[in-house]
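Structure ticket #2291
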Amino acid sequence: MMTSTNKSRPVYAPLEADPRGTQHWLVISGATEAARSSAFSALSNVSPLEVWSVEEDMAHAGAGAACAVPNAVAHRFDGEDELLGALGVALRGARVGLRVYALGTEPFIWSVQQVAALAGIALEAVRLAHSGSLQRRVYCIHCRTMNEGVATNLVPCAGCGRHLFVRDHFSRRLAAFMGVQADAEVPGELPEIEHTYL
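Resolution: structure written out below.
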């Protein structure tokens, strides 16, 4: 579980099946093998279950992952963008009672949350669990550019070029951490770069 004194920082718990659900979709990208195994175990008794995953993740998981939940319907995609696009289309036709379980990197699981919200899926019907890389999606408050895959406390903005300090403040609406100009008061005076989010 990830915790922080910052109240905006998400706190995650392991995935658990919601017995009130009538359909269950597990959406995975970038999760560790241990987290995938735990999720499959937690959802092994729900039906019907669909597993939406990035092909590369399941290839790394090995043959055992494919049959971890024998009656599950598998949807595999070449990348996250393709998966999220197909998920958005499918969610627009979803019935009441659907439960979505998102497992993977923080940017990915919050992208799933955004796609579900756009499709009108209730917040309580989506469960998120972080697993894998700690890299962050950082929103530049100056030019509104999203900077992906940030592993350090400082990052040059891909949009405006400012050196952004990566704050621990997380916006659920934007699904990103906030980045503010690190040398706004004294131009050129920057803190030491730390590889914090690997």
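Closing remark: Residues 23-130 form a domain with the Rossmann fold fold (CATH 3.40.50.80).
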